[in-house]
Amino acid sequence: MSKVFIDACFGKETPYTPVWMMRQAGRYLPEYMEVRSKAGNFLNLCHNPEMAAEVTLQPVDIVGVDAAILFSDILVVPNEMGMKLDFVKGEGPVFENPIKNESDLDALIGGEKAADKLTYVYDTIKIVKEKLPEDKAFIGFCGAPWTLATYMIEGQGTKTYTISKKMMYQNPDLLHKILKKVTEVVKYYMEKQIQAGIEVVQIFDSWAAAIEPSKYDEFSWKYMVEIAEYLKEKYPHIPVIMFPKAIPTFLDNVYGNFDVFGVDWGTPMQLAKEKLGDKYVLQGNMEPCRLYSKEATKECVESLANIMKDGRHIFNLGHGILPDVPVENAKYFVKLCQDTTRR
Prior knowledge:
With 343 residues, this protein is of the alpha/beta class. The chain is 50% helix and 11% strand. 47% of the residues are buried.
């Protein structure tokens, strides 16, 4: 396990703060696209441990990040709960039969039984662990129950979340039942990732901003905290990262037993530091589109280093890297972060 990464998570002094990038493996790497083409489609790539391990390691070998991020997809969880999933060109992920009522939910597999079906993920982890350099950390992840539930209810990605939010206000009991069932599966799923070799866990709530602030704890955060606290109780040495995207107005209400709070690019880092810097390590915050310009990248890295010079910080983007970012610019970002904090 990377001592630098783990020490940063637990607040110990390190020679430099670690750097990695959300969604590291992707279309910006020609090597990834080559493997993707061999797999035939995205879901096949997720299901093939050898190929998934190869693209997990590519950003470490090519870009020089301090941690490998498991290559998978958050939607493999509802898929293995029994929901038929396809990735449709031009549309993205699509579930054939979204959840409309309690009978649909009851038909899905839950708990450890569902988590046991994700063997290809655990096999990928084991392969990566054999090949990953000892000084690199290994990060696993899952989608937050709310984010997963939106896909399971809507049937696909959405900009309005109309069906999910209609359920939130008209039938909150059903939505809570969905969230509880997903939470139980995710607990076992993340535990099995750790048992397979994952060293750091991140919980993504990509669609956190779809919920009004007064309802966020009830329908998302408390379920994320439940997962984090389950893992911390059993594996206290494993850092847990929470990443709810675009909820700056919720910062005063953040609580729970976890180690790192991911700051998206729309939340001022100074604000996050003032609200949460004494409780948690902060991660991220750079606008991913800055990677199109080395000058813009340097400006942000230096600003973050200055803001967090007396705080605890992990360099990262404030959301996923985009597919047309030049590889040279991604390498520049990583090297600049490492050089900046080694001065």
